[in-house]
């Protein structure tokens, strides 16, 4: 057989693998469904491997198909990134660093990093995307992000993690809450209050740490609301719908009718770490990491 695998075969395969529906995949690719079916059949013949099991009711990937999907997502994403980096270099720039972050990193860590980059490597471009811990890790593993800012105790093998900030925690109370900062001596006085926390899925380490702060004070908090945004949490507190415990750095940049009481006399700290893939070959990333770790 004289056929050879071409880039179009991979794109067609990925469309079907993502949709698991030939008609929907064909519409996405702007080709006919019979034409797409022929291309997939041709690909399976060239590879001498079945990639899909197709019935009248559904389409599912074989084990080989599942493996190929993961590998092709990585390869095609890397091709896209390489092409983009070439354009930056051809334009006299030094590449791009794609950064993921939790909201608290935007208070000081990321702004300080961007200033350092601008002063030392003005031709490096950066892009920013606010994502959960898990989404950042997944994107870094798949080479869709270069650098992340996370609150996790560990990361998968092949990723490097470095602490860049240790912060205290602060209680967030409605402005009218009947306690003065000087009289606040323990989180235990909040044991009967409803608590508003960051979602456990969004930041499991933060969630577990806040639980431990309350448990050390002798109670398990009653959780009434969860959110992934500090602004939402503060708004709920402002409206007397509960109290919260957050990294102290988050109090900057918000102007609401809430008050913060820093919890100085507890061992727990809000640890923010930078994470990147050890075998990432983006040279701009390592200039970025150098700036980040300087004086940390």
TrEMBL record:
UniProt-recorded name of the protein: LysR family transcriptional regulator
Q: Which GO terms describe its cellular component?
A: protein-DNA complex
The UniProt entry, under Gene3D superfamilies, shows: Periplasmic binding protein-like II (3.40.190.10), Winged helix-like DNA-binding domain superfamily/Winged helix DNA-binding domain (1.10.10.10)
InterPro entries attached here? Answer: LysR_HTH_N, LysR_subst-bd, WH-like_DNA-bd_sf, WH_DNA-bd_sf
UniProt keyword list: DNA-binding, Transcription, Transcription regulation
Organism lineage reads as:
Bacteria, Pseudomonadati, Bacteroidota, Flavobacteriia, Flavobacteriales
Q: Name one Pfam family in it.
A: HTH_1
Its family remark reads: Belongs to the LysR transcriptional regulatory family.
Q: Where is the HTH lysR-type domain?
A: 5-62
Q: Name one GO molecular function term.
A: DNA-binding transcription factor activity
State the coiled-coil residue ranges: none
């Amino acid at each position: 057989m004289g056929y050879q695998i071409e880039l179009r075969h991979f794109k067609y395969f990925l469309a079907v693998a993502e949709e698991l529906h030939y008609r929907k995949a064909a519409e996405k690719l702007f080709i006919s469904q019979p034409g797409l079916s022929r291309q997939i059949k041709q690909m399976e013949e060239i590879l001498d491997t079945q990639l899909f099991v197709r019935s009248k009711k559904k389409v599912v990937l074989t084990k080989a198909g599942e493996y190929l999907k993961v590998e092709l997502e990585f390869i095609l994403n890397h091709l896209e990134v390489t092409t983009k980096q070439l354009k930056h270099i051809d334009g006299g720039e030094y590449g791009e660093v794609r950064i993921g972050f939790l909201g608290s990193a935007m208070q000081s860590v990321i702004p300080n990093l961007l200033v350092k980059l601008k002063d030392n490597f003005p031709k490096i471009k950066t892009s920013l995307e606010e994502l959960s811990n898990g989404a950042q890790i997944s994107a870094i593993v798949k080479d869709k992000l270069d650098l992340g800012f996370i609150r996790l105790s560990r990361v998968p093998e092949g990723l490097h993690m470095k602490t860049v900030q240790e912060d205290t925690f602060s209680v967030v109370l409605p402005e009218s809450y009947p306690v003065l900062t000087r009289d606040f001596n323990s989180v235990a006085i909040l044991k009967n209050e409803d608590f508003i926390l960051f979602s456990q899925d969004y930041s499991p380490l933060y969630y577990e740490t806040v639980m431990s702060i309350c448990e050390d004070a002798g109670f398990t908090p009653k959780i009434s609301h969860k959110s992934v945004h500090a602004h939402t949490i503060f708004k709920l507190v402002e409206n007397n719908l509960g109290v919260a415990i957050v990294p102290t750095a988050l109090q900057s940049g918000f102007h609401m009718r809430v008050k913060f009481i820093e919890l100085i006399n507890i061992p727990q700290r809000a640890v923010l770490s930078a994470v990147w893939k050890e075998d990432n070959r983006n040279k701009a990333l390592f200039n970025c990491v150098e700036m980040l770790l300087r004086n940390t």
